[in-house]
Amino acid sequence: MKQSAYTKLLVAMIAFSCICCSCAKDPDSTSAKNSEATNTKISSVADEDDPSEITNDGSTSDTQTWYSTPSNDNVPDKDPSDISPDNLRTPATPNGDTAALGTGNLSNGAFATGDKQNAYYVTYAGNRVTIMKEDRASGTKTPIYMTVPKDEPIVDSLNIVGDTLYFRENQDGSERFMLVRLNVSDGTFDVLADGEIDSFSVYKENLYYAENCNLVKCDLDGQNKKVLFESEHSAVPAKIAYCITDNRIFFAAPGDYDKDGYFFGKLYSMDLDGQNKSEIACGADVCNSGLFMSDGEMLYFFGNSEKDGMGLYSCKLDGSGLTIGDKDEPRSMNFVAGKYIMATDAELYMKKDSTGWEMIDSGNIRFGKIVLVGDDIYYIDQNTKDPNSTPVMKRESMHGGPVETLG
After folding, report:
1. Cα 186 vs. chain centroid, distance in angstroms?
2. Contact 147, 155 (CB under 8 A)
3. Is 162 exposed, middle or buried (0-12, 13-18, 19+ CB in 10 A)?
4. H/E/C letters for each residue in 207-241?
5. Least confident of 34-43, 184-193, 265-274
6. Residue 405 — φ and ψ, nearest 5°?
7. Nearest Cα to Cα of residue 179 among 143, 142, 232, 216
8. Mean pLDDT throughout 98-126?
9. DSSP alpha helices (H): ranges in 130-275?
């Protein structure tokens, strides 16, 4: 583990224009280049010759992947400034009633999630992705789903609701994704939707996702689909950055197209049914790709303003209090139960206090994306010098301890 001041990052940080360009090329949001739909190919562990037994105690949780709730874990409060190689403790076994999940998990890809009983995350082996279920108390790991062999397999946007895990899986050789519903107790699954789907989440008995540049809502079984917002633009298809907090959908409407492949547009909010849409005058244009999240009080996004230019911005939910951080901010940000974590593709930082951040680790963090489940940080390690290398899921406690290789 390393330790240094956040102010030492200025030379090493990546300029925001590179960030958005990386977002546009992120293979976690697009797969191969064929725009035509291919035949749906999907499999589970049940298709294997020797499937592992799947067990579940019937516990449920309404905590969603992208919404943070206070943690009751018996973990003593610790000032991040005290973290050093000499005083790192062994992480305590999580035993709270809920799993506090990172508010920014969805914005970071949501390749892991959890509830009071289990953690769920993806692992990689050659041309397949497996979803693992791990008992948080015993550490017992069980594979519950495996993709068929395909080029650049992607499984992300994990949302657990009771015994049902919802996620997104890419089609082979196309830019199309499937929304899959998996019963984690018996391994049965079905495909709820199929198309150019991005930014998938579950909130209050409904599915929400961006499809063909529109924001869409449907029932948990994929029925009663309704377009809540239809974007208007004349350039290439645009993603829509959005999050849900305080029973409102906050989103960036794609507007001005930039040559690097992303959009800047106005900030809006609307009811969960698409009604009462209103513009939020925050004083900055919002990037449609990359960081876009809320901790329930503030919105955080990459944006651009005449006064300060491009950078990481924050404002209150009503648009007031616009603030820009350092223009060379790390690529991603996430927070859970009052703990704020930032990352580049090489380093992890924890918010120390109002004066800045402290580096808590370094490594190969693909696209600088981090997912938080309880006190654990999940990230995908991949050799940036070899893009054909197999990704590796890794996990470490934000309180210290060894880095685990999960597969």
Report:
1. 26
2. yes
3. middle
4. EEEEECCEEEEEECCCCCCEEEEECCCCCCCCCCC
5. 34-43
6. -95, 115
7. 216
8. 92
9. none
Query: Torsion-angle region of residue 205: left (phi > 0), alpha (psi -120 to 50) or beta?
Result: left
For residue 374, which of 397, 393, 351 has the smallest C-alpha distance? 397
Q: Is the pLDDT of residue 88 over 50?
A: no
Tokens of 93: 């076994």
- The three-point CA angle 249-252-255 to 5° equals 150
Q: Is 23 helix (H, G, I), strand (E, B) or coil?
A: helix
Q: What strands lie across the sheet with 376-381, from one edge to the other?
A: 371-373, 376-381, 392-397, 404-405
- How far apart are the C-alpha atoms of 255 and 135, rounded to whole Å? 45
Question: Which residue, among 161, 159, 142, has the nearest Cα to 60 in the 3D structure?
Answer: 161
DSSP one-letter string for 28-44: TT---S--S--------
Q: List pLDDT tens digits, range 327-378.
A: 765 678 999 988 899 998 899 999 888 778 889 999 899 888 999 999 999 9
6 phi and psi, to 5 degrees?
A: -65, -25
Q: What is the pLDDT of residues 149-178, one digit of tens each?
A: 998 899 999 999 999 999 999 987 677 899
**pLDDT band for position 288 (50/70/90)?**
confident
pLDDT of residue 388: 77
Q: Which amino acid is at 366?
A: R
